[in-house]
Specification:
The chain is mostly beta strands and about 260 residues long. The protein has two helices and 16 strands. Strand 1 and strand 2 form a beta hairpin.
Length: about 260
């Protein structure tokens, strides 16, 4: 039996027409029978780098026994000239998380995937300590099991006070070796650490991996990279998947952290 965590993530390819732009990571989130794809906002649009894809493709398993069988699903990012994803902001500004609702009718009848739900979010922040072991499930540099179409998992640890917004931003730090292509990956903790979770996917969803952090003053000849990353708190998904949340308009995060 395949571990369910590996079926929770998918590789995202961004395109303009038929031209491939980038590859990144994403994962599934389900709420009120609605299915969403979650990734970093900069995967679907990034103004500083002039990254403006008009569609994405994800890979879906169509057989939960024979994982070599898969198919691609193309998802348009704009409808009638308007962006279809949802993004958010809090008191400190924009949050690097985006969600797109997936049309279940467009999925193959036997799609094999696992989705996080609101039950996987961490309610009590003081249960999570610095150094808590984490996993980041994604596609670094596009690397993955190309035969079975599965992601790889990197080990990580919490590197800043969980629940305390690092430098006033809506994310916490992780200590992990990451690469391009990991943006949008779920940052999870085994549910056994708190005794909660779900039988189908026994993990707590803590964050959405965004990017590596570094110091502009680092001497690249003498100093190694910090090896630190930012992960946006996953509770923003409650705001972005609320039925009233408007596509392509910034919704305000419902919870404030000091």
């Amino acid at each position: 039996m395949i571990e369910p965590l590996l079926l929770s993530a998918t590789q995202i390819s961004t395109f303009v027409g038929e031209r491939l732009l980038t590859r990144a990571s994403g994962f599934y989130f389900e709420r009120d029978s609605r299915l969403y794809l979650v990734t970093s906002r900069h995967v679907v649009i990034d103004e500083p780098s002039d990254h403006h894809p008009d569609r994405i493709e994800i890979e879906l398993h169509v057989d939960d026994v024979n994982l070599t069988r898969s198919t691609g699903l193309s998802v348009l990012l704009y409808r009638d000239g308007l962006a279809v994803w949802r993004q958010g902001e809090d008191a400190a500004g924009a949050i690097d998380v985006a969600v797109l609702e997936l049309d279940r009718a467009a999925l193959p009848a036997k799609t094999a995937l696992r989705a996080f739900t609101p039950a996987h979010l961490q309610a009590s922040l003081d249960e999570i300590e610095v150094g808590t072991p984490l996993l980041i499930v994604g596609f670094p540099l596009g690397f993955h099991d190309t035969v079975h179409h599965l992601p790889v998992v990197r080990q990580a640890g919490i590197a800043s006070s969980f629940g305390l917004r690092f430098q006033g931003q809506g994310y916490f730090l992780t200590d992990a070796r990451t690469h391009r292509g990991t943006s949008g990956a779920p940052v999870v903790m085994r549910a056994a650490a708190t005794g909660r979770g779900t039988d189908a996917l026994p993990f707590k969803l803590l964050g959405v991996h965004s990017a590596r952090l570094d110091m502009q003053t680092r001497d690249q000849q003498q100093d190694e990279s910090l090896g630190l990353n930012c992960a946006w708190y996953a509770d923003i998904l409650l705001t972005l998947t609320a039925k009233a949340a408007p596509p392509a308009e910034r919704a305000h995060a419902g919870e404030s952290r000091d």
